[in-house]
Automatic annotation (TrEMBL):
InterPro entries: IF-2B-related, IF-M1Pi, IF_2B-like_C, Initiation_fac_2B_a/b/d, M1Pi_N, NagB/RpiA_transferase-like. Pathway: Amino-acid biosynthesis; L-methionine biosynthesis via salvage pathway; L-methionine from S-methyl-5-thio-alpha-D-ribose 1-phosphate: step 1/6. One of its GO terms (molecular function) is S-methyl-5-thioribose-1-phosphate isomerase activity. Catalyzes the interconversion of methylthioribose-1-phosphate (MTR-1-P) into methylthioribulose-1-phosphate (MTRu-1-P). Its EC number is 5.3.1.23. GO terms for biological process: L-methionine salvage from methylthioadenosine. Keywords: Amino-acid biosynthesis, Isomerase, Methionine biosynthesis. It catalyses: 5-(methylsulfanyl)-alpha-D-ribose 1-phosphate = 5-(methylsulfanyl)-D-ribulose 1-phosphate. This is Methylthioribose-1-phosphate isomerase. The record marks C164 as: Transition state stabilizer. Belongs to the EIF-2B alpha/beta/delta subunits family. MtnA subfamily. The active site is at D243 (proton donor). Substrate binds at R53, G54, A55, R90, Q203, N253, K254.
Length: 364
């Protein structure tokens, strides 16, 4: 996607510097800063501090981290150590484990001397595949948007609601939930996106930045506004991303997604989830019981970050001194509330039968 006219992916390999480049997302939407990731600790920090974020991007970053580990020391022992070190950075997004396992499976049988080059090539493959997966999700989601547009008086926008940034910067490119939006916009369909702020970290300020950069009409709303808008017929469809979806289609995504799904269900609004196959956790069925949800600490709740009138990016305390904040970062939407899963192969039911029929080769 383009930033000020230049095409970017959210990470890229700089052959001259021999290093991975990332966008440091902590400064967005206010400043666009990029950074070289050079040491294994840099990789861990980038994920822990959410310089890179979003499940697919976390997975791709970890693959490059494994490549660096193989350049440092390609032994079996170091591979296992790097797996553990990178895996411990964030617990919920399953793409992290998926990418590290894929690297380990591919690299372990190789002679030690071949591992570094193979690991870097594999990281490039994972990044490129992510772009293609998301492009396909966009084309499949476009069909849903076209169906809605076809039933509207000409010129009336299709009104979508999204929660959290599942945009191009949460992936390598295109995004998951945003890819159908970008494809619809490129196809000339009028859109209006309701963009939930997504407290505490306000990831949808990033979505506003993305959509604004691409000329897609949108309105930034509080997390609590969606139910009201649905009751008043202002939302045609909800599309969110996911950090981990179980084999029976329970969807773990940013905190607050579940409430949107409940409101959508109550108001007969279709609730779709854009799901790349690496985000499916085939080892888990019951998402509520078995997906670990981290409490990210109270500072994200009791403070907000933003840009002040002097142009400085700063934190501001919003609660009285000593107030405790609770901060579960994700929640799980049970499959019964999900209208369908938009995958790279097509749209399926949020059920074990639906996912298994779509991915017989992956479901084991
Ligand atoms: O904590 P984050 O910002 O990494 O969480 C990201 C999300 O929850 C996204 O909404 C989700 O769709 C996964 S990224 C496509």
């Amino acid at each position: 996607m383009k930033v000020d006219g230049t095409h970017y992916r959210s990470l890229w390999w700089d052959a001259k510097k021999d290093a991975l480049q990332i966008i440091d997302q902590r400064w967005l939407p206010h400043e666009f800063r990029t950074q070289s990731v050079v040491t294994l600790q840099d990789f861990a920090d980038a994920i822990i501090q959410m310089r890179v974020r979003g499940a697919p991007l976390i997975g791709a970053t970890a693959a490059y981290g494994m490549a660096l580990a193989m350049f440092i020391d390609p032994s079996d022992a170091h591979m296992a150590q790097a797996w553990e070190f990178l895996h411990n950075t964030r617990p919920t997004a399953i793409n992290l484990r998926w990418a590290l396992n894929r690297c380990q499976t591919a690299l372990l049988p190789l002679p030690v001397a071949d591992r570094a080059g193979a690991a870097l090539a594999l990281a490039h493959d994972i990044a490129n595949e992510d772009v293609e997966i998301n492009r396909q999700i966009g084309l499949n989601g476009l069909n849903l948007i076209q169906d809605i547009a076809a039933k509207k008086p000409s010129g009336e926008p299709v009104r979508l609601l999204t929660h959290c940034n599942a945009g191009w910067i949460a992936t390598v490119d295109w995004g998951t939930a945003t890819s159908p939006m970008y494809h619809a916009h490129n196809a000339g369909i009028a859109l209006h996106i309701w963009v939930d702020e997504t407290r505490p970290r306000n990831q949808d300020a990033l979505t506003s930045w993305e959509l604004g950069s691409h000329g897609i009409a949108h309105t930034y709303i509080t997390d609590n506004a969606g139910g009201h808008l649905m009751q008043h017929g202002q939302v045609d469809m909800v599309i969110t991303g996911t950090d981990r979806t179980t084999r029976r289609g329970d969807v773990c995504n940013k905190i607050g997604t579940y409430l949107k799904a409940l409101a959508a269900h109550d108001n007969g609004v279709p609730f779709y989830v854009a799901l790349p196959s690496p985000t499916i956790d085939w080892t888990v069925a019951d998402g509520v019981a078995d997906i670990p949800i981290k409490d990210r600490g109270e500072r994200e709740i009791t403070y907000v970050m933003g840009r002040n009138n002097a142009g400085q990016i700063t934190e501001v305390q919003v609660t009285p001194d000593g107030t405790h904040g609770g901060n579960p970062a994700f929640d799980v939407t049970p499959n019964r509330l999900v209208s369908g899963l938009i995958t790279e192969r097509g749209i399926c039911d949020a059920s074990e039968a639906g996912l298994t029929a779509m991915f017989p080769d992956l479901s084991g």
